[in-house]
Amino acid sequence: MKTALITGITGQDGMYLAEYLLGLGYRVCGVIRGQNNPKRERLEALLPDVELIEADLLDQGSLVSAVSRVAPDEVYNLAAISFVPVSWNQAELTGEITGLGVLRVLEAIRIVEGVSAGTSGSSRGRIRFYQASSSEMFGKVRETPQNERTPFHPRSPYGVAKVYGHYITVNYRESYGMHASSGILFNHESPRRGLEFVTRKITNGVARIKLGKQRELALGNLDARRDWGFAGDYVKAMHLMLQQDEPDDYVVGTGVAHSVREFVEAAFSYVGLDWREHVRIDPRFVRPAEVETLTADPRKAREKLGWEPTTTFEELVRMMVDADLAFEASRHSSP
Ligand code: NAP
Ligand code: G4F
After folding, report:
1. Could you say which of 26, 87, 136, 190 is catalytic?
2. Residue 134: active-site member
């Protein structure tokens, strides 16, 4: 039985990955931070077989002791400040967690395994490492679609921090021969997506409007285009990367982009509503520097990993609206 250690276990991807690995027969351990983390209860109810370990990406010692205690075969670093707008307000903290946090996890593995520099090229250390890199690194895109060789031009402190995390992963692979891989994942969504992200904000807003709990939905830039897929598909690509003989970097996405406006139209029309009667543009949701468009070229993931997305854009929208209708109908809050 293999053991996986997941940072960011309370997040969208952490939960799907934990579920997937448990299904494959893994022992799954997850890093949880903070005293009395409110997400602990939900996680324990959903995934009682996951072992929770207290640690924080800001605290090197806690990560060393987590890796040492768990003795994992695979470490998935999913923890981050992941909401792009927060990164302008807390740029330094974003750099610390989303950027330097990657270094701390890599260092924890290196220290526990006793790996040092000197004999580059040979593969040393047993633990395999996955870094959650992001299509936000492409930012102001230099070409469309984006592949593993497309240059980066991040547009937010979050994107800049992810570029650091990406290259420190590449560097530990090259310096220490670590089996360290980086998944450059495009936007992936689900009913477990945080309510602050645009897809879930829309599907939850649609459900609340349909149920008479809310009248309008305030959004920012409707012209932005994203390559949206289903998170449950994407965690399988993470796992596949760590099963390869050689570590590498992979772009993961559907290859199809839609605008925020198209997502809005699809979600409202699914419940028989006209979005123009409910959506209001609010400049507070427009970003200081926008990533206008992202489209993946996932050929390498398809050819080398055998990975394919299984969920279309329309299926994703319907899945999220249905889940939010059920979620909102079961809540006892007054309109
Ligand atoms: P998410 O739902 O926001 O989850 C982020 C996780 O990071 C949470 O579990 C959070 O824990 C944890 N975390 C934050 N700060 C931490 C710290 N100091 N120490 C330990 N844990 C900390 O994100 P997601 O959508 O699952 O994404 C997973 C990863 O993939 C992130 O790194 C994200 O940047 C990256 N990514 C996501 C997408 C996407 O479309 N979803 C695309 C590309 C890359 P708390 O519960 O304690 O806050
Ligand atoms: O849903 P979003 O907040 O996701 P964003 O910024 O693309 O970032 C997500 O995907 C990245 C991968 O590319 C991850 F690395 C990152 O961690 C995160 O998971 O915004 C999507 C688009 C943006 O262009 C934004 O300007 O939607 C536009 N948008 C328009 N109105 C809005 C809104 N975004 C949000 N959150 N809220 C709005 O009201």
Report:
1. 136
2. yes
